[in-house]
TrEMBL record:
<keyword id="KW-0804">Transcription</keyword>
<feature type="domain" description="HTH iclR-type">
    <location>
        <begin position="6"/>
        <end position="67"/>
    </location>
</feature>
<dbReference type="Pfam" id="PF09339">
    <property type="entry name" value="HTH_IclR"/>
</dbReference>
<protein>
    <submittedName>
        <fullName>IclR-like helix-turn-helix domain-containing protein</fullName>
    </submittedName>
</protein>
<dbReference type="InterPro" id="IPR036390">
    <property type="entry name" value="WH_DNA-bd_sf"/>
</dbReference>
<dbReference type="InterPro" id="IPR029016">
    <property type="entry name" value="GAF-like_dom_sf"/>
</dbReference>
<dbReference type="InterPro" id="IPR050707">
    <property type="entry name" value="HTH_MetabolicPath_Reg"/>
</dbReference>
<keyword id="KW-0805">Transcription regulation</keyword>
<dbReference type="InterPro" id="IPR005471">
    <property type="entry name" value="Tscrpt_reg_IclR_N"/>
</dbReference>
<dbReference type="InterPro" id="IPR011991">
    <property type="entry name" value="ArsR-like_HTH"/>
</dbReference>
<dbReference type="InterPro" id="IPR036388">
    <property type="entry name" value="WH-like_DNA-bd_sf"/>
</dbReference>
């Protein structure tokens, strides 16, 4: 913890930031371990936060963001949260993994909603409301429906110029993009994903968490080409992305994250069909 002019205030901020970026509720002991604080100190902070509605305690005595914090979260005014969450939940259950809806504006990608299938492996990534710079190949699913200038800027890098045209053709042909690791690293995807899912990314040392997430991102960001994806042998699948349309434009990208090292052709087709149907459902909900 860095030096603070008001350590008690800093502790409250640290607890709230940890809960806000975590995909599952945490016990007081887990929070104390993650922040290197005394259990008694964390319990006192949580008691006050719960009384004010900033955190909520469940039946297992674990804590997550409360209604007062949820009311302050940046929301996309264009989405109907209840309908979007229902559509995301249905897709997550159908595919058996995590799903994320992001909004892409200019050179920024912002997560607006996410859901996980029951009993699915949870691999923490970007939190709702978190934004990152949009760089190739992120945003591939919406680029065929963006303006020429925006698409040209997205294709400006060496890797984008080399792989981008084929990727955009794939998106137009299949209605989605599919990404994978290098074949030699397929097993490492399982290892990294299991590590984060088992211990919770918030309990991994911060520097190590950043390195693991960065490496996992690199291992799942190689786009498939047509001939390779349509082959008959099992292939690793990191994630899929599909455009979500509103009034003829594609402001949102839907992401589905199987994170599997070996997926047969029938299952690959099922994932493609699932994300296409999910994107169509979301387009209908957002267009109302």
């Amino acid at each position: 913890m860095s030096h603070s002019a008001s350590p008690p205030t800093r502790r409250v901020i640290d607890v709230m930031e940890l809960l806000a970026r975590t995909d599952r509720p945490l016990t007081a002991s887990e929070i104390a371990t993650a922040l290197s604080l005394a259990r008694a100190t964390v319990t006192a902070v949580l008691t006050e936060l719960a009384a004010a509605g900033w955190v909520r305690r469940d039946r297992e005595r674990r804590f997550g963001p409360g209604p007062a914090l949820a009311a302050l979260r940046p929301a996309d005014p264009e989405i109907r949260e209840s309908a979007v969450r229902a559509d995301l939940r249905a897709l997550a259950q159908a595919a058996g993994c995590g799903v994320t809806l992001s909004k892409i504006e200019g050179t920024t990608l912002t997560v607006v909603a996410k859901e996980y299938a029951p009993e699915a492996r949870v691999v923490p990534g970007l939190a709702v409301g978190q934004s990152i710079p949009l760089t190739f190949p992120a945003g591939a699913a919406v680029m065929p429906w963006r303006g020429e200038a925006e698409r040209a800027a997205w294709l400006a890098g060496d890797a984008a110029r080399r792989e981008g045209p084929a990727l955009l053709r794939f998106v137009r042909a299949h209605g989605c993009a599919v990404f994978r690791p290098d074949s030699d690293d397929a097993g490492l995807v399982d290892v990294l994903a299991d590590l984060l899912g088992a211990v919770g990314a918030e309990l991994v040392q911060p520097d190590l968490r950043v390195r693991v997430l960065r490496q996992l991102g690199r291992l799942t960001a190689r786009p498939y080409r047509e001939a390779e994806f349509l082959g008959v042998r099992p292939l690793p699948v990191g994630y899929l992305s599909a455009p979500v349309f509103v009034d003829g434009a594609a402001p949102y990208e839907l992401q589905l994250g199987p994170l599997r090292s070996a997926v047969g052709p029938a299952e690959r087709r099922n994932y493609v069909e699932a994300i296409r149907q999910g994107a169509q459902a979301l387009s209908a909900s957002l267009g109302q």
